[in-house]
Amino acid sequence: MASMSRLARTPLSILDLAPIKDGRTISESFHETLDLAQHAEQGGYKRYWLAEHHNLASVASAATAVLIGHVAGGTSTIRVGAGGIMLPNHAPLVIAEQFGTLESLYPGRIDLGLGRAPGTDHPTIRALRRELRNGDNFPELVAELRGYFAAPKPGQAVKAIPGAGLNVPIWLLGSSGFGAQLAGDLGLPFAFAAHFAPADLFSALEIYRHYFQPSEVLDRPYVMVGVPVLAADTNEEAERLSTTEYVAVLRLIRGQLAPLSPPVDSVKGLANDFEHAAIASKRAAAILGDRKTVADKLEAFLEKTGADELILTCNPYEHSARLRSYEIVAELKREAESAVHLQSAMAQ
Predict the structure, then answer these.
(1) Distances in Å between the alpha carbon of 194 and those of 18, 78, 99, 174, 215?
(2) Burial of 320: CB neighbours in 10 Å, binned 0-12, 13-18, 19+
(3) C-alpha–C-alpha distance, residues 86 and 11, integer Å
(4) Residue 267 located in a structural domain
(5) Is residue 269 one of the residues assigned to a domain?
(6) N or C: which end of the chain has fewer CB within 10 A?
C-alpha cells in the first residue's frame, strides 16, 4: 500500500567514484561528476559522496577532499562529503584541516565518512607511507580526529586551523562487523557498503543496532546502506547497461584493472563458473530493471534492512544512462511521496 511506502519516507543519496572510462579523459570524468551532482541536487537527493581509492584505473576520486570542494563549489544545497576517507592513510590533523577548510567554505553542507581499509593494493599502501597495521589503530585515529574538531582545550598544543570547533558530521563506514560495533559504541551514524560486500550486511546491521549507545550526536541508531541501482526504461536496457559493471568486477577478480568499457550484448562465456559465481556474490544487492522492477525491489530492500537512508551507486559507461537512472529513481520517490500524501488527505 502507498501509505506503507518506505521509499516515500527514506532519504536517497549518491556515492560516486568519478569513474574513468575507456577512450575518455579524466577531465571528462570530473566534468561528469559535477554534472551528475547538479542533477542530483535538482532531483532531491540528500547527499553526494565521493570515495578515496588509489591506483585504480577506473576511479578518479583519489584526491577526495579536492574533488569534494569542486562538487560543493558547483552546487548550492546538496550535502557533499566523503564516503569515505580511508583514515589510516592520513594524519588525522591533515584530515581535520582539509574538512575544516571545506566546512568553512561551504558551511552546513560537508560530511566526513571514515573507513579503515586502505582502498588500494600493497605497493600503493607503501607509496602512501601507510603503516601496515591492518587498521587496528582505527579507533584511536577516529578519537584523535574528533578531538581536533572539538572546541580547543586550555593548553592544547596542536589545533586544527581551520577545523577546531566546527560541526563536521562524522560517519563510520564498514563492510564488516568491526566498523558496525565501533559506530554503535560511539553513537555515530553508520554506512554499510552493500554495494561491494553484501554478504555481511544483515549481521553488521544487527551488530550496530545491538551495540548502539546514545550520544551527543544521535539518540537512536542511524544506518545508511550502499546499494547498486541501475534503472532504465526497459528491463532489457538495464541488463545491457549492467554488462559494463559485470566486466569491471570480472577484471577486478582477475587483477586486470582497466577503465570502464562500453556495454556488450551478452556476458555469456566471458567468465568461468567460479568467476561468474564470485561476480554474482559481489553484486547480490544490485537492483536493476525498469521503473516498476526498481520500485518494487527498492521497497523490498528497505523492508528487509530497515535502512534509514540509501546511498546509491550506478556506473554504466554512458553518462546519459547514469543521469537517466538517477532521474528515474528520483521520479519513483516523488511518485511514492505523492501517493502517500494523497492517501493521507483522503483519509482525513
Answers:
(1) 19, 23, 26, 9, 26
(2) exposed
(3) 25
(4) no
(5) no
(6) C
What value, to the nearest 5°, has the Cα angle with vertex 244 and ends 85 and 36? Answer: 50
Closest CA to 69 of 110, 117, 130: 110
> For residue 217, what are the domain limits?
2-242+287-347
Q: How far is CA 237 from CA 36, 110, 296, in A?
A: 20, 35, 18
Q: Please choose, from the candidates 258, 243, 255, the residue with its C-alpha nearest in 3D space to the C-alpha of residue 318.
A: 243
- Give the integer Cα–Cα distance in Å for 338 and 154: 53
255 within some domain: no
> Cα separation of 192 and 170, whole Å?
14
Read off the C-alpha cell for 187.
Answer: 553513537
Place of cell 564488516: 176
CATH of the domain at 124: 3.20.20.30
Number of independent structural domains in the chain: 1
pLDDT (tens digit per residue) in 118-128: 666 778 777 87
CA dist list (Å): 337 to 40, 48, 148, 257: 17, 21, 40, 41
- Helix or strand or coil: residue 245? helix
Instruction: For 76-115, write each residue's pLDDT tens digit.
Output: 999 999 999 999 999 999 999 999 999 999 999 999 999 9
For 103, residues 6+ apart whose C-beta sits below 8 A from its C-beta are 110, 162, 163, 166, 167, 168
The answer to whether the peptide bond before residue 162 is cis (omega within 30 degrees of 0) is: yes
